[in-house]
């Protein structure tokens, strides 16, 4: 890889003021051009070819300091600018991951950049990055993609947060030129830069990129668009992550894109919307089952104790709330919930339905199943398997017949209760 770096003392700063500024041009393989500005503390990226074009037009006062002795001009006027951005240990790690295939290399890059970095749910950020990659590569349209686009999508998804990293003692701020020097292809860089809302120059100038123009830009890049959909499905819309955030007192909207605005801007197809909802409601961590069980079990036991002495309306409201919470977390999908938890919930269904019958509160289950028809098969099957009295079953199911407008397919009812007309 051919890398050329040129240092310029520029007569004006980025705002056009007559303040001498240090610039660095980085050219890679005569194909990629990057312009960096020294702020006095760090180098930041200046997108485009603003200064190079000014130089070509004959900008007066610009001086090439590339060959100037370090002890003289640069250190005198811009102390620290020529110090290595990566320390010796970090440079060793860079040499290691440069020997890897590109697919493994981006994983190492992301792991180093996001080391010990936490998201708003106080969980390792690298886990969100990897889930975004998984979501992106599972999108419905990916199967029909050319192999080269699939690879670009994978690489862009793994790296999509790298330019947002503010820098730390573990790993300094990463610039687009760094990724290019580490062998990241131009098209993948375009994805990552497109997904980075507030790049370093905007932050340095104290500005903020307009959300509408940002989303419009992302939507115009087909691969960046898919990564954005995958990111939002995990970061802003996933119900387990929202639960984590609420538990530590963080608003689900804090510091993130509005998932509704984003999905509208991305103009999801029906297939993409179905996939988005499936990923948003799927547990994102194996600990999900234990979390639900730990949350549900004490509330369930408390509810059982209240059946004999609690206010019927309050008990009915609690039954409805627990039922909704269970359904919202995919409890009836089967693939996400272990048998212990399903048994616990089945016990809850039986106990609560008996209670509601005795207090005339079956309207609660009727209302629940009107809103969550997918819960009907599990409820009906539970009654069939665990309640021996067919008359008791028949009474429950008749109460749950809501007329011709009920969303549940009669064929599905007959699957569990063939004796009922």
From TrEMBL:
The record's listing under Gene3D superfamilies reads: Hypothetical protein af1432
InterPro entries this protein is in?
A: HD/PDEase_dom
Instruction: From the Swiss-Prot or TrEMBL record, give the protein name.
Output: Unannotated protein
């Amino acid at each position: 890889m051919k890398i050329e770096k040129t240092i310029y003392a520029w007569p004006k700063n980025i705002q056009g003021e007559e303040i001498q500024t240090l610039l660095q041009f980085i050219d890679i393989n005569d194909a990629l051009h990057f312009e960096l500005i020294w702020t006095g503390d760090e180098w930041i990226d200046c997108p485009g070819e603003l200064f190079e074009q000014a130089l070509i037009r004959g900008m007066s006062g610009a001086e090439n300091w590339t060959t100037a002795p370090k002890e003289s001009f640069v250190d005198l006027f811009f102390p620290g600018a020529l110090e290595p951005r990566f320390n010796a240990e970090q440079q060793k790690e860079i040499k290691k991951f440069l020997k890897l295939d590109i697919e493994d290399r981006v994983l190492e890059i992301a792991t180093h950049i996001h080391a010990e970095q936490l998201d708003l749910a106080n969980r390792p950020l690298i886990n969100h990055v990897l889930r975004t990659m998984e979501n992106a590569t599972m999108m419905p349209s990916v199967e029909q993609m050319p192999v080269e686009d699939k690879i670009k999508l994978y690489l862009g998804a793994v790296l999509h947060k790298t330019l947002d990293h503010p820098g730390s003692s573990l790993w300094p701020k990463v610039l687009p030129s760094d990724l290019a020097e580490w062998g990241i292809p131009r098209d993948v860089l375009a994805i990552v830069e497109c997904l980075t809302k507030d790049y370093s120059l905007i932050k340095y100038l104290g500005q903020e990129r307009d959300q509408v123009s940002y989303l419009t830009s992302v939507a115009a890049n087909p691969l960046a668009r898919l990564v954005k959909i995958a990111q939002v499905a995990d970061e802003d819309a996933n119900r387990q992550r929202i639960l984590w955030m609420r538990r530590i007192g963080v608003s689900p909207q804090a510091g993130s894109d509005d998932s509704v605005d984003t999905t509208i801007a991305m103009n999801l197809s029906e297939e993409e919307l179905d996939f988005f909802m499936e990923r948003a409601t799927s547990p994102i961590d194996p600990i999900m089952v234990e979390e639900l069980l730990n949350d549900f079990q004490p509330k369930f036991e408390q509810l059982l104790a209240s059946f004999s002495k609690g206010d019927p309306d309050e008990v009915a409201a609690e039954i409805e709330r627990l039922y909704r919470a269970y359904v919202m977390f995919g409890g009836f999908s089967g693939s996400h919930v272990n048998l212990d938890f399903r048994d616990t919930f089945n016990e809850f269904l039986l106990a609560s339905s008996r209670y509601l019958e005795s207090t005339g509160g079956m309207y609660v289950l009727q209302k629940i199943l009107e809103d969550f028809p997918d819960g009907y098969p599990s409820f009906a099957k539970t009654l069939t398997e665990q309640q021996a009295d067919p008359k008791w079953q028949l009474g429950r199911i008749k109460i749950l017949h809501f007329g011709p407008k009920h969303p549940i397919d009669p064929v599905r009812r007959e699957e569990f209760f063939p004796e009922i007309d």
